Amino acid sequence: MCRLSRVTLCAIALLAMVGTPLQGGTKPEDIYRKALPSVMMLEVENHKGERFVGSAVLALGDDIAVTAWHVVCDARQVWATFSDGQRVAVTGCIDKDPGRDLAAIRLEKRFPKRKATLSLELQPVAARAYVIGAPKGYGFSISDGLISQVRRVDGFSQYQVSCPISLGNSGGPVLNERGEVIGIASWTKADAQNVSFAIPARELTRLEVKRPAVPWSDLSKSAGLSPARGSEASSLAARGTNGNGNGGLAELKARLEQSKGKPVTVILRENGQEEKYSFTVPAKGLK
User: Fold this and answer.
1) Could you tell me the residue ranges of all domains in the chain?
2) Does 252 have pLDDT greater than 60?
3) CATH number for the 128-203 domain, one of 2.40.10.10, 1.10.3720.10, 3.40.50.150, 3.30.565.10?
4) Where are the alpha helices (DSSP H) in the chain?
């Protein structure tokens, strides 16, 4: 009787373990299914008429999305497309933080019950992470990896992630195993494999979302448009007069002359990778 009782108890315990999902063990397909309604692909046309793709996530309101600032910094018009095919105009920029490569943008209509859940706590190193975006224009693609490290870059903490990130991923959400947004994909390290960086979700609290959206035509007239990381190139069109999206060396020098004495960040993109250089432009200008 004792042996049978022990066997029975073991069997019951085993069945209980099988029927109860482990904490933190959410399947990737469930994470994707939970986050997907809030993710959008951005189609951006800049003031030169060039078109390209980025990503965004509905995170701060039913009609307020977050993306990387460099995706929309020179936009003339922006459209957002959800995975279910709904396509809406993005009317303008509510707030921006060029130093943290973040922007809050307004959609022309509200999308109730789609807003993503944010996790404002810094995630531990080696935690699993997922990225949803539009690499090379392939919308709503998911990739996974780890939080390789939390590093202090440009004066604040950023996630270094091993998730594969390509052009078109910028502005898309980085997720934890609960499907919560823990960061926004921002930039990659040149000449390195799967060394990318995301801005932690806690930095989104710096954005002021109660102010009215500034139309793209008016935003371009405002001062302080930083030469951040370059907008996302895609298969929609080649960017720039020389095919690399920055209009040539002469134009870059001319733009830097406008920022004498100011700290700037310039990104060198080569073979699909990006290298970041931060410096203060000499007050006397460039030689």
Assistant:
1) 128-203
2) yes
3) 2.40.10.10
4) 2-19, 28-35, 69-72, 216-219, 249-257
Does position 137 have pLDDT exceeding 70, yes or no? yes
Amino acid (1-letter code) at residue 134: A
**Cα–Cα dist 104/93, whole Å:** 6
Look at 240 and 4; give whichever has higher pLDDT: 4
The vertex-118 CA angle with 114 and 123, nearest 5°, equals: 145
Tens digit of each residue's pLDDT (9 = 90 or more) over 185-219: 999 987 778 899 999 999 999 999 999 999 999 98
pTM above 0.85, yes or no: no
User: 254 pLDDT band (50/70/90 cuts)?
Assistant: low
Tokens matching residue 218: 């008016």
CA distance 251 to 239: 14
Q: Which residues, 6+ apart, have CB-to-CB distance to 229 below 8 Å?
A: 68, 70, 101, 170, 186, 187, 265, 267, 274, 276
User: Quick one: pLDDT at residue 250?
Assistant: 55
64-100 as b/e: b if 16+ CB within 10 A: bbbbbbbbbbbbbbbbbbbeeeeebebbbbbbbbbbb
Eight-class DSSP state of 78: E
CA gap 225, 87 in Å, rounded = 27
On average, the pLDDT of the chain sits at: 82
**What's the CA dihedral at 141, 183, 221, 224 to 10 degrees?**
-140
Q: What beta strand segments (E) does the chain contain? A: 39-46, 51-61, 64-67, 75-82, 87-97, 102-107, 128-133, 141-153, 156-161, 173-175, 181-188, 196-200, 214-215, 263-270, 273-280
User: What residues pair up with 65 in beta bridges, in sequence order?
Assistant: 58, 105
Q: Is the dihedral of CA 232, 235, 238, 243 positive or negative?
A: positive
